[in-house]
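Milestone M4 deliverable, item 7.
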Amino acid sequence: GRIGVGRRRSFDRLLGRGGRTCSDRPSNRDTSLITLAQCGTGKLAVMDRPVTGKWLEELTVGLVIPHALRRTITEADNVFFTTMTMNPAWLHLDADYAAKETEFGKPLVNSLLTLGMVVGISVHETTLGTTVANLGFDKADFPAPLFHGDTIRVETEVMASRESSSRPGQGIVTFEHRAFNQNDVPVCRAVRNALMRARPTSD
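Output delivered:
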């Protein structure tokens, strides 16, 4: 649809501060992912974004990536996530219950928060700008609990990789994400499949 003159001028100014005109093409497609934004003229403007993920060709079986990011999980993280996802479990929300009626003595971090954080920590060095979609999880284990104040670090190993037979320029990669707390105790192991892009080639 059409957009107003004011919005079109604002978009044009935005393009002038780092975007590209609708007819331009990036000179190096190996180091940046091309994204398309709608121009006021109805055409598509090509804009570059830095890519830190790995292309399909780089994700060779046996590759292990120790991730630079770490994260301390807070009580606020746990309460917000648990209530946002409509989970009423006392185990995560009721400190008195956890102290008096569980073997742990304090609230546990929601395991789905743990899983989401583990995968999230891995994104910057594995799939940022290079993935099409997450296809699903084969396994998610939590061998030890996490508590408020624990810090997790993550490493990822490529378990399998193959080109897609139905989607040229893409392939399926199986990742195993392994997370440890500040004492190097394993707290999560997740195996998932992702549809990944092959390295773009020049037109």
